[in-house]
Amino acid sequence: xxxxxxxxxxxxxxxxxxxxxxxxxxxxxxxxxxxxxxxxxxxxxxxxxxxxxxxxxxxxxxxxxxxxxxxxxxxxxxxxxxxxxxxxxxxxxxxxxxxxxxxxxxxx
Length: 108
Prior knowledge:
CATH topology: Oxidized Rhodanese, domain 1
Strand content: 5-15%
Distance between the termini: 31 Å
Domain Rhodanese: 15-107
Protein name: Sulfurtransferase
Keywords: Transferase
Number of domains: 1
Structural class: alpha/beta
Helix content: 40-55%
Pfam families: Rhodanese (PF00581)
Oligomer: single chain
Strand order of the largest sheet: 1-5-4-2-3
InterPro entries: Rhodanese-like_dom (IPR001763), Rhodanese-like_dom_sf (IPR036873)
Shape: globular
Order of helices and strands: EHEHEHEHEH
Number of strands: 5
Largest sheet: 5 strands, parallel
């Protein structure tokens, strides 16, 4: 089971630039809006792209998707852990919670 991170903890880590944020929704959802600095990585692409987009397997990584009902962030986090990433957490509440709190979002 992937460890969780709270909104406040994630906000602080993003501001301190101590975390790599992974958007597990990808595609049009990512283009429309994503957390600051997030990179898109969906489950289908993890095996092929993880080593390129996440070269440091010891880096702090947080995955998220839309809300607690969305399984994507947990699936991507579990796969990254299986590939040897050692500091992967999940922002279970997702982008809906982030946006509802009035925190900044980015667009592509």
